[in-house]
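Dear Dr. L.,

I hope this message finds you well. Following up on our conversation about the binding site, I have prepared a predicted three-dimensional model of the protein together with flavin-adenine dinucleotide. For your records, I am including the exact sequence and ligand specification that went into the calculation, followed by the structure tokens. Please feel free to forward this to your student if that is useful.
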Amino acid sequence: MLRSIPPRISSRSLILPSSSIRSFTSLRSFRCFNTSPNNKSTLTKDYSQPIVPKVDITKPKNDYLKDYKLSELFSYFCIGLVTLNKPILNLCIKIFPFVPMPIIKALVYKVYCGGETMKDLFKVSDRLQSRGINNMMLSLTIEAAEGNEVVDPEYIIEETNKSINEFLIPNTIEKIKNSQDINSIPPSYVALKPTGFSHNAAKILRDYQTDKEFDVLVDRISKIIKTINDANISLQKQYPQRIAPIVVGVIDAEKHDLQNGVYELQRRLYKQFNKVDQPVSVVGTLQMYLAESGKLLTLEENLAKEGNYRLGLKLVRGAYIHSEADRSVIHKTKQDTDVNYNQGITYCIDNILKQEKSESTVGHLVIASHNSESLNLATDLINNQQSTNKNNIVLGQLFGMADNITYDLIKDKNVKNVIKYVPWGPPVETKAYLLRRLEENGDAVKNDTGLNLIKDVLTTVWKRIF
Ligand SMILES: Cc1cc2nc3c(=O)[nH]c(=O)nc-3n(C[C@H](O)[C@H](O)[C@H](O)COP(=O)(O)OP(=O)(O)OC[C@H]3O[C@@H](n4cnc5c(N)ncnc54)[C@H](O)[C@@H]3O)c2cc1C
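The resulting structure of the complex is given below.
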């Protein structure tokens, strides 16, 4: 059994109700991401300057659509219709589960999903590369929220390992071989949803301290991270100039009441696979909309230093706001979440850039966001510093989302460290993923959202014909 409890820290301090986070952080004296008792960050350096992205007003804002196929433009037109306003979107969310899959496939599937087979994934990879996006984070969309009997963990392990060995690694190596700079290609990622690794994962994660099945769940995910780690170690010998790993396993964050179990899972994996002086093979997720997230980042950094391992972090703002049952655990306002997110990414970027290749405690960072301000902030911070370690910072967006922002970063700021999160797998499972994307749009939809998209698509088609 793997235990990641560092010396002098009792297992109780690894439970993450705020009380134990408080007791731990007050005992430590490391310089790290610091937070005040009201959960607001109190950094000596001001990380929260508002960033106004420079916008090129001479460039049409629908420029990003000009290389899209007609079938993709048709899908965006449909998405525009669905997101015309909130009442229409809410109606679509209600009827979505009853819409037959062939109709969904004809209308929007291709924009948001990578396909059903590995052959489909190679095609998506080429499509992304033609737009300047050189790698992806794969997610096998077999979902299991509260006790999903359909989940077969052994099948998920087998399919995921196959996708790593037969797609992600060869595809990345091919790109590296064809690139002028071995470090210009970001790593490939495989996203792992902890609830997919047991029939009763939600209960196991909640009761992780007492439920023996928790060790089984950790062992199952370890089988995938071991495949990744073995590959990174052997590829590092083959490509010694490469700064970032070739492939990384990413633990996705779940609902808040499951997260203590997920944090413990992440720590055990960090300890086993993110050894000091080696590339990071596993990345865990922090949801910065959680009021406790600043303290958590401090705690994770301190545990990594004490446990002599490296952190891999994916920072997200958080889930669709209405999916979190306990609103009290989330920052009070969107602005608080935004400030906390920007402080978090700035702190991690600093930590990575000021050290050499395998020395920083935060060894690898994925900035998973569609927010233009955060992405521009991160890009400017990276571009303004000289460091060989920059390749360990990667921006990630969901496939089919924020394509205009990704496009602007690539064209205006020559961004190469960008990947897309691509779900793939059986169509029935991807339907649940698509429903979540629709729900997530609920937070963002204003009265002009869909209309603008429709106008942009029609203008693009018009220009192409005439
Ligand atoms: C590559 C990738 C991987 C991801 N993995 C995960 C994952 O593992 N787990 C997970 O939970 N999410 C994950 N997400 C994030 C998530 O699903 C959303 O895409 C993300 O939160 C949207 O925020 P944004 O940074 O794009 O910016 P914005 O659109 O600016 O922010 C929207 C987000 O802000 C937060 N928010 C909205 N209103 C409020 C409010 N009133 N008060 C406080 N906060 C508010 C919510 O989290 C909301 O989703 C991932 C996203 C990407 C791109």
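In brief: The chain has two domains: 55-113+433-466, 114-424.

With kind regards,
A. P.
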